[in-house]
Amino acid sequence: MKNNILAIIPAAGIGERFSSEQPKQYSQIDQSTLIEKTISVFLSSELISKIIIPIHKNDQFIKDQDFYNDPKIHLIKGGETRAISVLNALKSEALDNYDYVLTHDVARPNIEAKDIKLLLDKIQNDKSDCSFFYTPVRESIKKFSLKQDITVNKDEYYLVQTPQICDAKKLLSALTICVDEGINIPDESFVMERMNYSVSKIKGSSANIKVTYPEDMDLLRKFNTRTGTGFDLHTYKPGNGIILGGCFIECNHSINAHSDGDVLLHSIADAILGASALGDIGIFFADTDAANKNLDSKTIIDFCINKISKLGLEIFNIDATIICETPKISPFRDAIVNSLSEILKLDPSNIGLKATTSEKIGIIGENKAIAVQTSVNLIKNENITN
Fold first, then answer.
1. Pairing between strand 150-152 and 241-244?
2. Is the CB of residue 39 less than 8 Å from the CB of residue 73?
């Protein structure tokens, strides 16, 4: 079977630096565990023929994972180190069936299917024995010294990531020699270069983070956002002012609406509900319901926030654009942002608010209506209790 890839995902570690009662790979992110999110990409890839997961001999959590009974999965006993776990996996298979072995950290769930194809193309096009992802060093680097730490040139270094892909039989040979010699092995590319096999690299993504410490989960959740958009439009009628984001704005209009007509809060509410796949405000606050007559739109926002809280979600940021000819929004922008901050329980730095006209086009351009377009990002908050 040519170009079939054997995937090895070591998961025998107990995560001592993670400081948790359970290994870090079983921590929750969104509705899945870290290991479930990581494994799902390999399960869906047609390039991956089999997935071997070395686990700890006392693992009590693996049987609860959604992939546990998948025929593509093969569980084996892991070793005391990552290298021994990978070696055990290699020895458990008939490597004649595979051209390549792909290894990946179980605590890197942000891998995408395209990454597997990129690595395969890289190792084949370069005719190398091993290929891996890397990212440039962005921060300054200092080297420890007994007298005084020394700043080094960061451009001479880069960070190594997984997944990594290797010639199957050459990896087995290199890993066997290095393990027998008792060498500290950080990853597979190390043993390949140590045995003078050809190694190539491809620039990876900074989103492909590895969870090592508890605070890494917070960073990971920021990469795993849920985005929703909302749009609302209301026509004008003569009046003395309108409500935007909970702020009363004096002008020559009022709003044709069943509720208080806060088009900004309505747009935000729809974006929140959309991001959480709960529908739109019309489902919960029908304009045919007499109970919603002159309803304060802050009530709608409170309802939406309560809904997403029950899903373990919270608002990370919003970006809204008000579209109208009048009133001019800039004199009221700060007041609206501060009002939204209080209503949404969100720091003003996470609230984007812009205004534009429709260049005299359509019902808005004729100064007969106002509209708002909003984007909302939600993130998982494990501290929310339902």
1. unpaired
2. yes
Cα separation values, 106 from 55, 172, 202, 218, Å:
11, 20, 20, 17
CA-wise closest residue to 322 among 366, 360, 271, 370:
370
Taken in order of first residue, the domains within the chain and their CATH numbers are 5-220 (3.90.550.10), 225-380 (3.30.1330.50)
Q: Both tokens of residue 201?
A: 């690299």
Which residues have CB under 8 Å from 29's CB, separation 6+?
A: 37, 109, 217, 220, 221, 224, 380
Task: Give the separation between CA 70 and CA 82, rounded to whole angstroms.
Answer: 24
At 1-58, the pLDDT tens digits run: 445 899 999 999 875 555 567 888 998 876 789 999 999 999 999 999 999 999 999 9
Tokens 């007499």 found at: 290
pLDDT digits (tens, 9 = 90+) for 227-236: 999 999 999 9
